[in-house]
Fold:
Amino acid sequence: MIILDYRDRRPIYEQIVERFQELMMSGAMEENSQLPSVRSLAMELSINPNTIQRAYAELERQGYIYSVKGKGSFVADNSHIKDSKREAVFKKQEEVALEAWMLQADREKLHEIIDQIYSRGGKSDD
Amino acid sequence: MIILDYRDRRPIYEQIVERFQELMMSGAMEENSQLPSVRSLAMELSINPNTIQRAYAELERQGYIYSVKGKGSFVADNSHIKDSKREAVFKKQEEVALEAWMLQADREKLHEIIDQIYSRGGKSDD
DNA sequence: TTAACTGTATTAATCAAATTAGTACAGTAG
DNA sequence: CTACTGTACTAATTTGATTAATACAGTTAA
Structure:
């Protein structure tokens, strides 16, 4: 479910945050479904529980999950997050297209990249 | 010429590298023009000369500049800069497409944004 | 109630990477 | 020669992430 990349410059807790965000945004984790417990995930990844705790705290702060003492952490209603994320990604697309245009980059290649991602889906581990 | 952002997580030398890349890419620095000396720029930014040295070494490694002992560091032939920027923009396109895919964003809209930018060119006000 | 889970909080120690500091060497130009 | 330039190297410092060790609090089921 979660794979850590120790070559990545970014801190582990941030990778975990991002990974869960991906899982929730892609619909791989349903609303109200339970996340692994702080301790069990720490065990599974062979890292310290505090690091998981920090990741979960951040996810909760951003409204992705909610935590209940004694019960666990669960996926929150994130439909609104999804909407704003979609807005943002279209804006990013504009920026990329503008930069590409300024560089006289091949327009067709941009289209191809999009189609390739959409047909193949997520990346495979290289 | 160079402004540091200490809130930025990335190391200072990397910010400097990127800033110079931008300046060269936009044509603000002409080929063979001289960069500030390691020591003077360090003084100006109130940081250690070693940090500038590291940034310059990286710029040279990537072919953006060339350095001559005793003379200084100079902007290299920048025709290849455009190529590497093009590479970068395609990579950005991948990231955007991947994020859009995860959000189940409308693929067609991405295509439309690109075509719109390429047909209209840059925005009128900038 | 008790045992075994859950999240949360706190403090100190450790680790890694960036940055600093200091020094030295080598080439260029006036 | 003097004052610039780049380059190299090692040690110290700083900063942030991570670990470690505990402790406390709520939930659930036996």
